[in-house]
Write a structure and sequence with these properties.
Strand content: 5-15%
Helix content: 55-70%
Largest sheet: 3 strands, antiparallel
Number of helices: 7
Strand order of the largest sheet: 1-3-2
Radius of gyration: 15 Å
Structural class: mainly alpha
Length: 140
Amino acid sequence: MDCKTATLVYETGNPLENIRKMFPEAWQFLTAQSAAFVAGKDDAFDAEIKKSILSEGCANGKTPFEFRITHRDDTEQLTKDISELLGDITSRLLLEQHFSQVVGRPIYFSTICCSSHLTADRELTLDEVLPIQRAAVKLQ
């Protein structure tokens, strides 16, 4: 997040409310992603990633953690906004805390593979996220 934006978000008022007002499209996107993750809603990109990972030998035909990944066009302003919000640790933590409360369970947000958004049920390790990254770049 650039310094001017960070100042507007954090200097006064409620930072979470400031994020919601300054990034309304990103807020709506994260709201939808949170709900879709909890509901297990299908996404074509997500299905292809999971198919690729599972073919590489996950036990019981399931990943050992829950996740949902969606791909975005990297030229869209929304993609840039999501990257800024999730790249700033403070805003990412605020958003994770808020949306975890909204959906009633812990969720974690990340960006991955150029312009994709990842929602998971916990922080992922490098060993867990690297196969997702590799599968995602193969689909590009």
